[in-house]
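Teaching note: in complex prediction, the entire set of molecules is handled at once rather than each chain in isolation. The prompt given to students was simply: 'Predict the structure of this complex.' The entities are:
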Amino acid sequence: MSRERIPQWRPGYRFQWEPAQEAFVLLYPEGMVRLNEGAGMIGELIDGQRSVAQIVAALANEFPDEDIGGDVDDFMQVAHEKHWLHFA
Amino acid sequence: MKNTGSISPDTTRPGMPFWLLAELTYRCPLQCPYCSNPLDFAAQGKELTTDDWFRVLREARAMGAAQLGFSGGEPLVRQDLPELIGEARRLGFYTNLITSGIGLTEAKIADFRERGLDHIQISFQASDEDMNNLIAGSPKAFAQKLAMARMVKAQGYPMVLNFVTHRHNIDHIDRIIELCLALEADYVELATCQFYGWAHLNRLGLLPTREQLERAERITNEYRERLAREHHPCQLIFVTPDYYEERPKPCMSGWGSIFLTVTPDGTALPCHGARQLPIAFPNVREHSLQHIWYDSPGFNHFRGDGWMPEPCRSCDEKDKDFGGCRCQAFMLTGDASATDPVCAKSPRHDLILAARAEAETAMKRIDQLTFRNALNSRLIARVTPT
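The expected output is the structure of the full assembly:
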């Protein structure tokens, strides 16, 4: 999967911080998924502008010791399979 | 980060009411004979005011509610629906409008969008005009629904289409799915009738046979496989009637676990069917939602497993299905604490077997069902005093 692609949440899907759950969630028609910390950090960077490569670079700055690229690729693959997002 | 997360209920204390179902009104222009509203809806008290609802929304949101359904009756009947949508979105809810589509217009769809409505669910009664209108009790319903479904998509909303299926329309499941795909639905709920409220009254004329059900499920699975191969975004949700199961459904994910319903007159319920139970439920006019959810006797009545009789109490599946549905147990056995008769271990499973047998030979036509309207509601309330 190319890192040049630009992820965008599916129309009608909303990513937001839930204070009561102390977590980011993805809200969609009649449903919700609570994202873990890592997925939440990736989700925060999905804005329809940044490419996957730019998201990886932004996170790599914050966490230089971790394999951020692999984690972001995994997230993108799962999120795409589940139709949470599409690529522009 | 392999695991992207999920909702994991915490069983040690009541969780948050993630889902608030706001039943704004019992008024409805349609008369579907499987309506889940109470039989005596016409005898219910005054509707909550706009300010009452604002307070309910605020309190629920502060307690962690994230999903909000505007339902009814037909929620479009409420003149303050636009204000309620705006306030709900401002508070951070994901706002779902659950509607028959009757009363919807292009201008309203646009206005709701501007105020922050996230999603519109439209219910259909059948895939063809004649049967749809016969079941809905309205000659123009189908054409209006089609027009509004197209408009909802054109204006950029995600859309769920809901079809309640039963013995008179379930054999058209392929045409139903084709219609939904043509309308570009994001989700399709193929919900086999659940037997509460008016549907329970009309069960003989609604419950499909096992053969009908198995065929519908097979066809749905074929479509699912096709859609998955095409990476098609439409998701088909098939709800089986628990009458053909050997274990009960985990009703509402457990009593007072994640769902909170507020009815038109302010009565708060752990599910929209619970009003019929012989339990006193609190009213939002008298109590805060905090008290209602965590402390009220009504919401604590069937929490946990202390209330369970045998065979549930010693059953190794009790954490999976929570003893099934309390409303169903009450409707079928007269005892709200009984094991759900759907369970093959229930001493009253014979009631379910008899209903299945009845479905094999039932002859009731659609026009012989008792339609959900104020006249029938008053008549029923008169002969069965509560």
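Point out the following to students. The mean pLDDT of chain A is 94. The helical segments of chain A are 37-45, 52-62, 68-81.
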